[in-house]
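I have been asked to look over a protein record a colleague put together. Alongside the sequence sits a line of tokens, each denoting a local backbone shape. Please read both lines and tell me whether the tokens look consistent with the sequence. Take the sequence as given and treat only the tokens as open to question. I have pasted the whole thing underneath without changing anything:
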Amino acid sequence: MSTTRTSRQVLLAHRPQGTPVPADFRLVEVDVPPLTEGQVLVRNTYLALSAAMRTLMSDEDVPLPMYRVGEVLHGPALGEVVASTDPGFAPGDLVRHRSGWREHAWGPASGFLRLDPDLYPDPVAHLSSGLTAYAGLIAAGRLAAGETVLVTSAAGSVGSVAGQLARLLGAGRVIGTVGSAAKADYATGVLGYDQALDYRRGPIGDALGAAAPDGVDVVFDNVGGAQLRAAVHAARPRARIVICGALAHQAAHEPASLTVDTMAVAGKRLTVTGFTAADHPGLAAEWPARFAAWLRDGSMHLAHTRLDGLDSAVPGLLDLLAGRHTGLVVVDLRNAYH
């Protein structure tokens, strides 16, 4: 059994007022309790950060497992089993779970999923948002060969996968929106976008009109706000608009509600669809093998930013919300145990 006695965790100290600040969080050391029957103790190796965590810190009425003041935060994580009283897990097993923001996780075995450690070239791929992009483009976006695709937040966790997938699935042209010149270069030079539009340089509607004068067929929207409004204007007749995220609200504090041209939606017979990957178990079943094959043959790039140690988690999240990172943002905890 493990000799682990204490572990560090990050708590929500206060609900942020506007942009979160370091004082809204607290890093604490806690005792690791002995396991009871049917439980697992895991040494976390990677935890993922996302803009959606800003919403979880709020007191908004949304159907999500919200963070509670004074309690440890949660989120996707990978780890190695160090002790188990459940026959389904053994020390050394690689697992995924939702108890991130801590160096060790423990609890009922039902809260942990055992993974194939050899599936991906880099285990961080197990934390990718790729399935979300895959389900959004195929099931919600109904992407057809030769179509023009717009992905907002093209260099983010989901967008960095969606742009690459759109190309692999046969899109004729893939356009993205980003928040800096450096991200525009990254989107076109690394992620394979045909064009990346910096929304900070001027009206995004004008830039989108110039980049896609014939309109767009599929919109994969991670942002909302003015970018979604511009996408509706640029959409071709019978275009599909896939609503995946709300970064304008989560990171920039724009209102979650949005006024769009409903006459354009009706007149162009647009389809606007919200979705989650959980709606599509068939795609979820096929995704890991396809993703692994694309990563191994170089068809896809695992876009991610890797931070070191639990102390970097809060600054990393604040930087993510400020738009300073690209791809999936993960905190590497492996050095905590040396």
About this structure: Residues 281-296 form the longest helix (16 residues). The two ends are 19 Å apart (CA to CA).
